[in-house]
Structures are given as structure tokens and as C-alpha cells.
Amino acid sequence: MKRAIITGVTGQDGSYLAELLLKKGYEVYGIIRRSSSFNTSRIDHLYQDPHNQPKLRLIYGDLTDGGNLSSVLNDTQPDEVYNLAAQSHVRVSFDQPIYTANTDALGTLRLLEALRMMKKPPRFYQASSSEMYGKVVETPQTERTPFCPRSPYACAKVYSHWQTVNYREAYGLFACNGILFNHESPRRGETFVTRKITRAATRIKEGLQDKLYLGNLEAKRDWGYAGDYVEAMQLMLQQDKPDDYVIATGQTYSVRQFLDEVFGYLDLDWHNYVVIDPKYFRPTEVDLLQGDASKARKVLGWKPTVDFKQLARMMTDADRNIARNERLVKEHNK
User: Fold this and answer.
1) pLDDT recorded at residue 46
2) Any idea which residues carry the catalytic annotation?
3) To the nearest whole number, what is the mean pLDDT of the chain?
């Protein structure tokens, strides 16, 4: 039985990856930060389900504490480590650049160093990001496209990416970078633009909200489904040789088009509800991201199964259920 560690297990990707690995018979350890309140809503169904064999086990840990990471690794002796933990919000990284760098850049270095010191280092997956391409020099972007990061988050991810490559080449670690383009789901955080839109649109439909405040509607992204993308992560660590892969749909849509799809699905005109607020604009914008996942298709045998329209409607349906329940509670409490 394979044993895996997932950092960032309580996040969107961590929860989907934990599900996938458990289905494949892995023993899964999820690293969570110690705090005064639990933030495990995305994985409660996994570690509370008595039918899950083996179960998900949670361990306290933090990417800002290298000694703790070494202890966790030595205690569990995993076969695979997936580093998904990060301060992952691009706009927030402008407000908290030092924290972002400490977690997203130095955190990866601490983890790589802990791996290097092990007698039998496990295989390692690093969550790289399409934001590293930033002000793109070519479209679509491939594994060979130069990086031009445009945010503290993207800069931190570039650092982690190249440290992963360096540890692979210098120390022979089986270390892979997955350059994942935007991937969404009903489990996406509510501050990210896609979930912000589906959450607000469904609340507006249920009479719970009047307006939605957004920034740049013209930014174009390559949006896929997180459940598809975690499969690519696992596949990378099953190959004979470590390498880096772009994971993307190859299709690009603007925020405006996402609004069209979601509000149209609910028979609403978003122009009546959306207000542009300058505070949501980034100091430096990334206008267009579009990935070429040809290498992943050829080597990993991976391809996306959920398209843009299906993704938007999946997220809208899930948030419509939440909004309906909120409305019922509100009416009951009147």
C-alpha cells in the first residue's frame, strides 16, 4: 500500500486529491496548520466516513517550520509528497507579500531540504502555477515558455518551481512541477472570481443579494475542473522519470464570458447587478493565460473531461442549493 502526504489538504485541490488517492488504495496523511478553529469542511466526508479504508489521517504541520516538516516526514515515511499548501490568492499577495514568500517560496525550500535529508526520499510533486507566465511572451504557453511573473504570488511560485528543478538535478530527487492553469469547482474558495460569481448570482436569484462587485472583466483564463487536474498530479509521480508538465484545457474565456454563462443559466442579466470596483484591480494585471497540455496528453495520457460550460453550470447548481437553504433558513427565522 502506497503512503502519501498532502500539504494543503483542506484546500480545494487537497480535498480532491485526497479523495482520488483514497480510492486508489493509498494511505493518506494530510498536513493541516494548528489554529483555534477547524477548517476541514472540504474533507470532513473523508475522515469521518467509516467506510473509507484506509482512512485519511490528519497531522499538524506548517511550511514555515522546517523542523516540524522533517519530523512529519520521518515519522510517516511516505512514498509520495504533494505540496499544495500556499497563500494562493493573487490579489492578497500584493497586500501580504512577505507572508506569501515565506509560505509559497521558502516553504517549498524547507520541504525540499527535509526530503533531501531522508535516507529514502519520497517522490515529490510541486504545485506550480500558470501565473508564473504573467506577461506572456507567447500563446499558448508550454513547458518551454519563459516566465514573467506579475505578482508576489507568481514570483514565489517561480522560486519554488526552479528550486524543485534544482533539487531534482543536483540531488537526484524524483521531483515534478505541475504547471496548472486555473482550475475551479464547487469547492473553490469564495474569494476567487469564479466562485465569487456563482455564489453571488445564485444569492441574487434567491433574493438574498442585490449587487456583485468585481474588478477586471476582460482578463482571460484557461479554466478547467479541479477534479480532473488532481488526476494529472498523481500520474506525474507514477512515471519512470521526473519531469514538469503543463495542465490545461487549451481553451480561454474572459471573466465577462463567465458572467454571461452563469447569469444566463439563471435567466438573469448580469449588467443589472455587477458593479466595477477599482479595489479589485491588481497593480499589475495578467491579461491572458492559455495552456498547451500536449506533453501531458502524450506522456501521462491525461486529458480534461469537463468543459467551460459544464464547469460553470456545475458550480452554479451547487451554489444554488446553498442559496436556497440560506433563503429557507432566513424565512424560518423571520
Assistant:
1) 83
2) 129, 131, 153
3) 94
